[in-house]
Structure formats: C-alpha cells, structure tokens
C-alpha cells in the first residue's frame, strides 16, 4: 500500500507505518482530572484487506461527523469515507476514479448536506487532484484543476459557505514544488494565484472565518521554513512566521476570528523534532511554548489543530522513538498548552487530524498497527 502523496518532505509529518491489526474494542482511556480530557477509543470500520488509514475528520454536530482516508483492497488504494451518526461509524461509498491509487486527505462541512473531501488519484502516471462532494445523499466527484504535469495533490479543504470553499496542496511540473490553491464559488473549482517564495513550496493546511479572512500554511525552501499565506478577499500574500529550528514544517491551521488562529507542526532542535505551535493575535504570528512527550531524543510532531474559541483548542499528532509511535494530544485552555492522556493501541499509533465543536466534543483520527495491516483509529472526547 502506498502512503499519501508524492511531495517528499511535504509528507514527513504525514507518513504512517502501514502494518498491523487489531481493533479498538476494549481501549481504556487514561485517567484524567478534567472531563474535557477524557479521550476514548471508538472502533471505526477498517475495510481494507491490506490496511486502512483515516487522514481527515469533520464535525457538523454531536451526531453528524465524517472521517476520510483510504484503504488498500483490490490491488490499489481506494478512497474511504465513514460517517458517525451519534452511536457508530459506518462506511459510505465514495468515488475512486484512479486505477492505481486513490486517497482522501481532508474533509470539511458547511452543513449536513454540504460536505467537501479532497485528495488525489492516479491512473499510473502523475497524481491528479481529487475533490468529492456530499449532498446529503451520496458522494460525487467534481472536476478540479490539476496544473502539474508531474503531480498535483490536495492536502486540506475548508468550507465557508455553499458558495465559498478553499482547497490547498502542492503541484510540480518537474522544476520544484509549487503551492496550489483552489477556490469554489458555488459553480466550479478554479486555481487562484498563490506565492512561492522558494524553489520548493507546499501547503498542508487551510482555515477560513469569512470570505475575506483565510489562512493557508505549509513550508518553503530546501531547509524547510514555515510558510503562512493570508487571503484578504482579493489576493493571497505571505505573512512573516517564526521558524525556530533548522528544519520547520507547518501541517495544519485553525481559526475562529480575525484575531485568533493557530498553526501547528514541528521544528527540529538538532537532536529531535519538537512540537511547534504558532498563534495569530490579529497582528503577528508568534511561537507559543508547547509540551512534548518522552525524552530529549523522542521526536514529537503535530499534524492537526481545531479551535472553537480563544480559550479552547486541540492539537494532535504523534510521539516517536524509533519505529514505536504513540498518539499525542495537546489542549489549549486559554493560558497554556498541556499534554492530555490518550489511548495508543498497537505498536504504532498516529493521529493525523482533529475536529471539535466545543471543549467537550471532539474527534481525532489516524491509524494504528499491531500484528498485521494498519487499522483506522478514531478517538472521541468526551
């Protein structure tokens, strides 16, 4: 089974070991003093005979959520969409147009009958962008630009309204990687010009609070510096952002207002990867201290973030020592980030995305492995 995408370091945070088996049944949450920190495992279906990964999650309400990713079956990766109805996850059919590869990497909802999922597919040559829409009845593929002759991959999507949505990623025509931004205007997806400050660039996350306020994050340059772009309703422009280490990557962004946004990823301190959290206060992006799990040589990275207010945000990822991975969840209470205990089944457990409607209602998804093909992982709070 193939891991997600083809953009080199663009995948550094997102590659998941695909080799295990087992279920989430019987997971016991770690003890916690606060109810908002009580994360428990809820078994999602893992239909792929060769492995399953959940790479994105979105919430409409407590009884309406979506998780997307891929499973390996029939000799190729197939798109995977699963729906939460308040009591259980169930697989919902979704298009897989590629003969050799299909994956969905992100999902977001404007309403229960207006949900977008993005990713890529291939028929054996370069990747093409993949955009699918849920209309309340079924998932349908919609046409989308694929400007790269080598590959075009979408990594994140955000829906503002029925006539306003953004999808971001990366493309290449053989001369470096370029940022890719697509916009939905209610009728069609079109490419919007976006900055490329270096030879290699990629976008991995997008967030929007209105038609005039959107953020896209990723990395730029051979040494991986953080990259943050802002949409003001007219154009995308680069905004200065901290890059505290020799290597820095941003994987996700979440925003609740024009003066409150978070971007997360990792920075390399020369010994190991450390969690990286940046906050926008309406004027500048600044690094905010964030905890790590394990010792000084244990690598930590954040791959997803969800914020519902200035005093409530979740960030998820993994902590890795060698080939052993554990889930990592951080919580922002308005004053500081703190690590929250979370189930970590199998020998490797990775969280790739998080969505939340409040401090006490959130989902995080990813994958875990034990003794066979990878299985989908879904954790719920609370």
SSE topology sketch:
Blueprint: E1 40-41, E2 52-61, E3 64-73, E4 76-84, E5 89-92, E6 101-111, E7 114-122, E8 128-134, E9 139-142, E10 151-161, E11 164-172, E12 177-184, E13 189-191, E14 201-210, E15 213-220, E16 225-231, E17 236-238, E18 248-257, E19 260-268, E20 273-280, E21 285-288, E22 299-309, E23 312-321, E24 324-332, E25 337-340, E26 348-358, E27 361-369, E28 375-381
Antiparallel strand pairs: 1-28, 2-3, 3-4, 4-5, 6-7, 7-8, 8-9, 10-11, 11-12, 12-13, 14-15, 15-16, 16-17, 18-19, 19-20, 20-21, 22-23, 23-24, 24-25, 26-27, 27-28
Supply the key terms.
four-stranded antiparallel sheet; 28 strands; mainly beta; Neuraminidase; 382 residues; 57% strand
How would you describe this structure to a colleague?
The protein has 382 residues and is mostly beta strands. It has one domain: Neuraminidase, CATH 2.120.10.70. The chain is 0% helix and 57% strand. It has no helices and 28 strands. The strands form 7 sheets. It has a 4-stranded antiparallel beta sheet with strand order 1-28-27-26, with no helix packed on it. A 4-stranded antiparallel beta sheet has the order 2-3-4-5, with no helix packed on it. Strands 6-7-8-9 form a 4-stranded antiparallel beta sheet, with no helix packed on it. Strand 7 and strand 8 (128-134) form a beta hairpin. The protein is globular and about 45 Å long. Residues 1-35 have low confidence and may be disordered.
